[in-house]
Amino acid sequence: MKTVFKKPESLTDAKFHYCPGCSHGIIHRLIAECLDELKIREQTIGICPVGCSVLAYEYFNCDMLEAAHGRAPAIATAMKRLLPDRYLFTYQGDGDLASIGMGEIVHASLRGEKITVIFVNNTLYGMTGGQMAPTTLLGQVTTTSPYGRSKDWEGYPAKMAELLAQNEGSAYICRTAVNDPPNVVKTKRAIKKALQTQARGLGFSMVEVLSTCPTNWGLSPVEAMKWVEENMIPYYPLGEFKVKEE
Amino acid sequence: MGKIAVFAGGLGSGKSELAINFALEEAKRAAGVVLADLDMVNPFFASREVGQVLERAGVKLFGPGGDLSFGDVPSIPAEIIALIQQENYLFIDLGGDEVGSLVMGYLSRFIKRWEEMEVFLVLNPYRPFSSELAGVSKVKQLIELAARVRITGIISNPNLVEETNLKTIIEGHRQVQEFADFLQLPVKFLCVEERFWDQLLPRYGSILKKLTLHLRPTWLQDT
Amino acid sequence: MARGRVIFLAERCKACGLCVEFCPKNILVFDDHTINVLGFHPVMLLQPDECTGCGICGLMCPDLVIQVERE
Amino acid sequence: MKKVLMKGNEALAEGALIAGCRGFFGYPITPSSEIAEYMARKLPKIGGAFIQAESELAAINMIYGGSSTGTRVMTASSGPGISLKQEGISFISEAELPCLIVNVSRGGPGLGGIQPSQADYFQATRGGGHGDYRIIVLAPSSSQEMMDLAILAFELADKYRTPVMIMAEGTLGNLMEPVIVREAVTEFLDKPWATTGCVGRKPNVINTLHLSQEELEGRNRHLTEKYKMISKNEKRAESFLLDDAEIVVVAFGLLARIIKKSVMEARKKGVKAGLIRPVTLWPFPDEHIQAVSRTARTILSVEINMGQMVEDIRLAAGGKIPVEFYGRIGFTPNPEEITRQLLFIAEREGLL
């Protein structure tokens, strides 16, 4: 018997604090597997956000920083400029990246910063109790869009992958999901490609991962995975939006 | 001296102080002397601060007026285009570096009296970026590009303000002369404070120019 | 005969059921007779002989509960 | 000794480079922009990083990241920009990341004006952002000190793992003076806490989140102990003609230099005046104030604001001596104006 699946080295032994079925755990593991497979754990520095994954610094077994809300790309920018041979990744939720940190993410992409952003989109603020996010879908009920998000009142959900793909500085922009095994495999492939893009010095890379929040969606973990497929993917199409080869 | 004198140069090379002095001196001989303060880069220690002194001497000052004199916004005095085309003695004080000279680039297309115009590059070799030929020739090149005019001469302004002494001036001027030779430009003036005048006159003769400091706070002089 | 083996770190299991849902052989269930330190009925393998060691359970598990071995 | 004629802002920037600063992250604002411009010219040539950030928020977080790599880094701004940076300064203080923050001040509140100002004294000396913290604040009074205190600032920042602020009036930033260019700093403290990739060691974490009450209180107690240590070791002030002084002026920055002239003038007219110039605004040099409150008749705080440092002077004086205030806004009083004030007080107190 040989081991075909186990906890990657790039994760610590700490237990995740996430709710049952929350896909942060899957995404953490995929990043760690990529660091293991590329053998870059000791060369990598991760930056975690404010949001449910605020404690991610306890889970990744590499140098880690905790950022102020939305500012991770600015922190990563300076670190990468001063440590150009290191790998920098930020791990950001939709409130962090697409709302309060919209300025930082857009400019990091415009400058073509050689960093990798893992953007976890679960359509609401999980940490603070299910408020509306920039990525909340039209019609979706949250605690601050109690009548359902409407285009006239709250405006349209942000498509960050499409937005950032337009910037010349973006070298690899991809949207994936972790709602079923094939998509989990594709997500890992995308994260690895993003890190390789960084290694080749091609520019800014981001993987937007459609994720779940069973607790605030009021669904079971299995129902939540189906909700991603039925509601999120139609509005947030999966695929590569920008692939720079040199 | 032509009828339009433009003072360009690196940040802090002494342009404003020189423009004020040249304008005041001209005003002793002629009517219709105008000083245009076009420093859009930095409103600290600009020639607009000594408006009253100029006015008493019969020099008309055009600069960002009223509230804008300490405004942090570029503001070209509206009269300047007319002034450039009229018969007068016009002294133009530009802001520092090529950025400060951009305004001249805009104005240059209104100039009709080219033959009456002198454009000075003010050099103080004790300033950062002006102590080496590379820095000086770069600033000259960038200023000409930005101002869309050719520099016609150099004004040597070697000083360490209150700590200036004869040695500072002589060594500094030698440095400026070297730069000038390399740039193939004549050194038109060497400016020194009044206190050095007598001792330096025999050495430098007609290029020596006496300066009175108008922008330097007096309280600095013995603290 | 089983070609795979699944090892559960039962104390990490939050009984989200994703492995149960996605197991292609439908051989995973919750262990109603056990409650782990987190207060959940952890997942268990009902028919070990059927396991092919495909690893999909581990792939979908958000909590690093599962280790998979294969011949 | 080589002297260069430098604006205060240039001298400060050069001082930072001499101190080994290799990262500048900032957003332009008058009257601080010459610092960024100087760094933009110089840093790329010596292997440093210069970024004009998209905002002050980004800039201060670049400082957070830059400092985390163990590199000496700095930012420079002015009042409104420093306000925007406060969130980051709070985080940097809690994460104990050394850095230099420069405030070439302007008047406020709001956009105010770019004239000389000392109105950010409260903001600087009370920490400025949220939470229990302090930062070291240095107030230079000449171009030479702009350079020398920049070098000192980095040394203190590394020693205590804290942000250090240099606060200067816009006039000082733009005033040209001859400066002796110092030797490059070559010895630096080790920074084993830096996040540079965990090659051959356990991972480092830089974090400001503390969920448990015990941990949070412990962190605050730790910081407080550090601030006490800084207070004990690092108070700095310049004393001028204090021995027999009956009226003691307290002033900082370029203003204090001007007031030296006033003090000398007043003495010529028979007023026994003296001057205390705090060089560290935090920690505030209260022992200097306590000493003169036993010997002098009155203290006059002169500031380019509506009365901020005067509160620290009163605290230090502890009611033992009257403390009065004279302030201007957007304007550096000339020496005569303060001399007149000293003569007025002397006459009123019967000291003439």
Automatic annotation (TrEMBL), chain A:
Q: Which domain of life is it from?
A: Bacteria
Q: Where is the Thiamine pyrophosphate enzyme TPP-binding domain?
A: 57-200
Gene Ontology molecular function terms on file? oxidoreductase activity, acting on the aldehyde or oxo group of donors, iron-sulfur protein as acceptor; thiamine pyrophosphate binding
What stretches pass through the bilayer?
Answer: none
Q: Which GO terms describe its biological process?
A: cellular respiration
InterPro entries, alphabetized? 2-oxoacid:Fd_oxidoreductase, THDP-binding, TPP_enzyme_TPP-bd
Which keywords does UniProt give here? Oxidoreductase
The protein in question is named 2-oxoglutarate oxidoreductase
Annotated source species = Syntrophomonas wolfei
Automatic annotation (TrEMBL), chain C:
* GO MF annotation: an example: iron-sulfur cluster binding
Residue span, 4Fe-4S ferredoxin-type domain: 4-33, 42-71
Gene3D superfamilies for this protein? 3.30.70.20
Tell me which stretches of the chain form a coiled coil.
Answer: none
Q: Does the keyword Iron apply?
A: yes
Q: Which InterPro entries match?
A: 4Fe4S_Fe-S-bd, 4Fe4S_Fe_S_CS
UniProt keyword annotations, A-Z: Iron, Iron-sulfur, Metal-binding
The yes or no answer to whether the keyword Iron is present is yes
Taxonomic superkingdom:
Bacteria
Could you tell me what this protein is called?
4Fe-4S dicluster domain-containing protein
From TrEMBL, chain D:
Q: Which residues form the Pyruvate:ferredoxin oxidoreductase core domain?
A: 245-330
Domain (Pyruvate flavodoxin/ferredoxin oxidoreductase pyrimidine binding): residue spans on this chain: 14-185
Signal sequence bounds: none
State a single Gene Ontology molecular function.
oxidoreductase activity
Q: Which UniProt keywords apply?
A: Oxidoreductase
CDD domains named among the record's database cross-references: TPP_PYR_PFOR_IOR-alpha_like (cd07034)
Which Pfam families does this chain map to?
Answer: PFOR_II (PF17147), POR_N (PF01855)
Q: What NCBIfam families does its record include?
A: PRK07119.1
Q: What is this protein called?
A: 3-methyl-2-oxobutanoate dehydrogenase subunit VorB
Q: Which organism is it from?
A: Syntrophomonas wolfei
